[in-house]
Write a structure and sequence with these properties.
mainly beta; 50% strand; 6 helices; 75 strands; Chaplin family protein; 27-stranded mixed sheet; disordered C terminus
Length: 1002
């Protein structure tokens, strides 16, 4: 082919391509009719660029970088730097087609359906200094403002496939300001910059009485990128002094409705608002780098969502996925053969999503809500690292991140409606105030204040419904952090951090139901965990120091509530909360060198809470399964050294709580109001150990921990069947190795004051009437094993000192004393049968048998003083008269379970003739009373009233003391585990006998 022909074809392609491109890139002079109907399709990308006040140094000369102030866009350009609303403009071909349809029968062919997608990328490059084999200096005062209106209003009511909206309103501002880069030269900058970028708007439509109408899928995005105030030096000097602020917003509410419709009024908002930052860092390689910066950032996306599916089919549902959280790498210093210093202050705020409200009353598959809010603030700041150099940082950070919000819906008189599903992870990841060196010096200093939250209250109802008003949530709150850590290899390093953190995931689930079926049930699995390492030092032939503090609050979920009155398989709660901190702090490990570690910890953790429900007049309703697990794993205050001096000091205050009280009601129900719990508190304390080999190690530790899983259980079941029963398996275990000292050719010392409180389960209470109703069973498991305050010396000296107090409460215990479970009275353990028969009474020291036919010998009775079991056996009813005594027992003062001897003596004396003595008393007739357990007659009392008769039928009993508790029970119920009775009287019978715990039985 001829050359000219080839060139002609190429020109045609290029010209055609430009023409095609021209249909999508409009000019500022394009004629747009503001009265034209909005286009059904509107999409575009806008890139406003502003370059100003930058300086470049070269070996030849110093240059000011040319200014740029323009917008590259696929839609209409309103100004070089838009500061007012830009009217949405469609692609020209689409717009022309729409205009030609006006006034024709096809003008409404789109029926209000809308597709709108806009992405704005403002770029600000200002106040930067770059030196390449020369010097550069910049001083900038920079601003950039952009805005686009993304408001959408349409309507699909009463139509099919109408009023649907697909929208993308995203702003992605990029800020590059106040940076200094020196390569073989000197670079300095002093800059103030501000960038404001907004878009979004409310989206309003309607799908009432429609089919596949009024649905919305909308992305609201605000994701600023900020790279400011950094100093980088390579064989030069870089100095950056910067103040920068970025603000990005794509906010807007979503409003629609699907009443009396089918597959209408559904909403899917997607708010996204993370910030990405690299600010105030100093990096030096055979050079010097210094930064002093202040940066602030904010990003807001989305808003509230409101729709309705009453009454409808597959309508008014909401699904929201929200993401929030700044991700920052700020104020770090790194030096290799040079010096780097970074001083910085950062404040960030990120919010995505909001409240969700809908309605599924009288509907099918409507008014349901699904949420996946994610809050992920991540910070790497205030860290110093040096290799044959010096690195120093001083960083202050404040971050607030929130995703999602509260949820409200209704599912009355519906099928598969008004349900809520929530997956709301909240976390915070930080590496802050750390120092690391190799042949150099490094110091990291950080003050960190972070708040990360997701979701909120969740409420629904399922009255008179089927499969409605249920809630399922998986709250997760987990901070992951390393701060105030120092490590060195042949150098010096220090780390310091002051941390305040709140991490919360989701809120209270609350559902109510009357006369429902498989409705208003709650399933929640809240998880609170903390993986934290702080105030830790490690050195190898070097010196390390740290002084750090931690104040952390971690909350996952809240108190679940459900109601299932007059319902079937409703109002039930399944709660599986876990609180599992894992913390390492205040430890020092050094091989040849000096080490000093100080850490202060205050952590509060809570997963789940009190569970409340009711299953009155219901079937399989109001039941609760709760299996909380709370632990406290900490390695604190360890001093470990070899040929070194190590001092470790740690203070600790930790509360780890999972679950809470459980309360239900099964009155008039069937298989209702039952509570099943398995509470576990595995506690592994290992604080305050000291280990030395040819060195000196000192540990000073003060720790106070509280670990609680579950709480009290209560239910009632009047006139019910298989209801109101309580079954608990509390397990409480402590396995610790702490306050030990090991010295090998050295000195190891520890002073550890340790106090702990662990509780699994709690008290149980139930009452009611009916078959297999209102029964209790508990199977407590408790273990305690520890190696503590043990000095081990191998040609060295080891000392241990301090206090140790562990309190364990497992199941039905109060103040550390086991309470006997009550089953229609107080049941004695089976072990008593081998010691005392039903027709026997205990033998006491000094008497083989109690006197039954005659008055007791005064000498024998006197020998009983102090042996009668006054404090432990149940009291004898007060209305019974006391036994007679004579003068030989006047010195006996104990009150024997309600038998006041002194008062009886005085009363007897009042009835005697004047001058009568104990030796001249007449013969007293016997009481006409016999009992199966006492087949002999007791002496009578010469008073005006006789003792009431003991029961002749049934188990032998004295004032509620059931001596034959298995009478009347089924064979399998006789095999009860032995009961833990610590009564002094029983101990006197056979001190070697050890009773097992009372557990009760259904």
């Amino acid at each position: 082919m001829q050359t000219w022909a080839k060139r002609g074809i190429q020109s045609a392609f290029v010209t055609g391509g430009l023409l095609m491109l021209g249909t999508g890139i409009a000019s500022a002079q394009e004629n747009v009719n503001p009265d034209a109907a909005p286009s059904p399709v509107d999409a575009g990308v806008s890139v406003p660029v502003k370059v100003d006040q930058n300086n470049l140094g070269t070996p030849v000369k110093n240059l000011d970088v040319p200014k740029v102030d323009r917008t590259i866009s696929t839609d209409r350009v309103t100004s070089a730097v838009p500061t007012r609303t830009a009217a949405p403009v469609a692609h020209p071909l689409i717009r022309q087609a729409g205009e030609r349809l006006q006034g024709t029968a096809l003008q409404n062919v789109v029926r209000g359906n809308t597709i709108q997608a806009h992405v704005d990328v403002p770029i600000q490059i200002c106040g930067n200094a770059i030196a390449v084999l020369g010097n550069a200096e910049a001083a900038g005062d920079c601003t950039q403002y952009t805005h686009r209106d993304g408001t959408i209003v349409t309507d699909g009511a009463g139509q099919a496939l109408a009023g649907n909206v697909v929208a993308v309103n995203h702003v992605l501002p990029v800020q590059l300001t106040g940076n200094a880069i020196a390569a073989g030269g000197n670079a300095a900058t002093n800059t103030t910059a501000e960038q404001v970028s907004t878009t979004g708007g409310d989206i309003t439509t309607n799908g009432d009485k429609g089919a596949i109408s009024g649905n919305v899928v909308a992305e609201y995005g605000a994701t600023p990128v900020q790279i400011t105030g950094n100093g980088v030096g390579a064989a030069g000097i870089a100095e950056a002094n910067s103040t920068a602020d970025t603000f990005a917003s794509s906010e807007g509410d979503t409003r629609t409705s699907g009443r009396n419709s089918s597959i209408s009024g559904n909403a899917v908002p997607i708010p996204v608002s993370p910030l990405f930052e690299v600010n105030g860092n100093a990096v030096a390689g055979a050079a010097n780098a210094t930064t002093d910066s202040v940066q602030t950032g904010a990003a807001y996306a989305g808003g509230n969502t409101d729709t309705d599916g009453d009454p409808a089919t597959l309508a008014g549902n909401v699904a929201e996925a929200a993401v929030a959280g700044p991700i920052s790498v700020d104020d770090n210093a790194g030096a290799a053969g040079g010096n780097a210093t970074a001083v910085s202050e950062t404040i960030n705020d990120s919010n995505a999503g909001g409240t969700k409200h809908t309605n599924g009353t009288g509907s099918t598959g409507s008014g349901n809500v699904a949420g996946v809010p994610v809050s992920l603030p991540t910070g790497v700041g205030g860290n110093g690292a040096a290799v044959i150099g010096n690195a120093l940082t001083d960083h202050e950070n404040e971050a607030n991140s929130n995703a999602g919000g509260e949820t409200y819906t209704l599912g009355d008189k519906s099928v598969l409606s008004g349900n809520i599903a929530d997956v709301p992870p909240a976390t915070a990841i930080d590496a802050c105030g750390n120092g690391a060196s190799a042949g150099g010096q490094a110091a990291g200093t950080c003050e960190n204040d972070v708040k990360s939250t997701t979701g909120g209250y969740q409420g629904t109802v399922g009255n008179d419904s089927v499969g409605s008003g249920n809630i399922a949530q998986t709250p997760v709150a987990v901070p992951v952090e390393v701060y105030g850590v120092a490590g060195t290899l042949a150098g010096q390093a220090s780390g310091s951090a002051d941390e305040t953190k709140v991490v919360r995931s989701s809120g209270q689930p609350n559902s109510q139901d009357d006369r429902g079926t498989v409705s208003s049930n709650v399933v929640t699995t809240p998880t609170a965990a903390a993986a934290q390492v702080f105030g830790f030092t490690a050195g190898l032939v070097g010196n390390t120091t740290t002084d750090s503090s931690n104040d952390t609050s971690v909350i996952a979920g809240s108190d679940p509530k459900a109601y299932g009155k007059k319902s079937s398989v409703s109002g039930n709660i399944v709660q599986v909360p876990t609180s599992t901190p894992a913390q390492v702090f205040g430890d020092g490990v050094t091989l040849v060198g000096n080490n000093s570690s100080t850490a202060d910890n205050a952590t509060d953790m809570k997963a789940g809470g009190d569970a409340l429900t009711t299953g009155e007049d219901g079937s399989i309703a109001g039941n609760v399964i709760s299996t909380p697990v709370a632990s406290a794993t900490q390695v604190a205050g360890w001093a470990v050294g070899g040929g070194s001096n190590v001092d470790a000091k740690a203070t600790n205050d930790l509360d780890s709580v999972a679950g809470g009280d459980v309360d239900s009601n099964g009155d008039g129900g069937s298989v209702s109001g039952n509570l099943i719990g398995a509470q576990a508190t595995p506690f592994v304390p290992v604080p305050g150990n000291s280990v030395s080999a040819a060195g000196i190690t000192n540990s000073d530790t003060l720790t106070d921990t509280k670990t609680v899983a579950g709480g009290d259980s209560a239910s009632t079941a009047q006139d019910a069947s298989v209801s109101g029963n309580l079954i608990n398996v509390p397990a409480n275990a402590i396995v610790g190795v702490y306050a030990d000292a090991i010295a090998a050719a050295g000195q190891a010392n520890t002073v550890t004051d340790k106090e702990s409180f662990t509780q699994a389960g709690g008290n149980m209470f139930t009452e009611g009437s009916g078959p297999l109703t209102a029964r209790e069973m508990t199977v407590p498991v408790e273990a305690l094993a520890k190696v503590a305050y043990v000095p081990v010396e191998v040609l060295g000296q080891a000392t241990t000192a301090g206090t140790d107090e562990d309190t364990q409460l497992t199941g039905e215990e109060a103040a550390g004393v086991l309470r006997a479970t009550q089953l229609k009275g107080i049941e004695l353990p089976k072990g008593v049968d081998s010691l005392m028969k039903a027709d026997e009474v205990p033998a006491f020291h000094g008497l083989d048998k109690l006197p039954v036919n005659t008055l007791p010998n005064p000498a024998d009775v006197a020998a009983l003083a102090g042996q009668l079991p006054t404090p432990a056996l149940p009291a004898v009813a007060q209305e019974r008269s006391a036994l007679p005594v004579n003068g030989g027992t006047a010195g006996i003062t104990p009150n024997v379970q309600g038998l006041p001897l002194n008062e009886v003596l005085e009363a007897a004396k009042a009835l005697l003739p004047a001058g009568a003595t104990g030796r001249s008393l007449p013969t007293v007739p016997s009481l006409p009373v016999t009992a199966p357990a006492l087949p002999v007659q007791l002496p009578g009392v010469p008073t005006e009233r006789s003792l009431p008769a003991l029961p002749l039928d049934g188990p032998a009993s004295v004032s509620g003391l059931n001596l034959n508790p298995t009478q009347g029970l089924a064979p399998q119920e006789r095999a009860l585990p032995q009961l833990p009775v610590n009564a002094p009287a029983i101990a006197l019978i056979d001190p070697a006998n050890v009773f097992e715990r009372v557990t009760g039985s259904l």
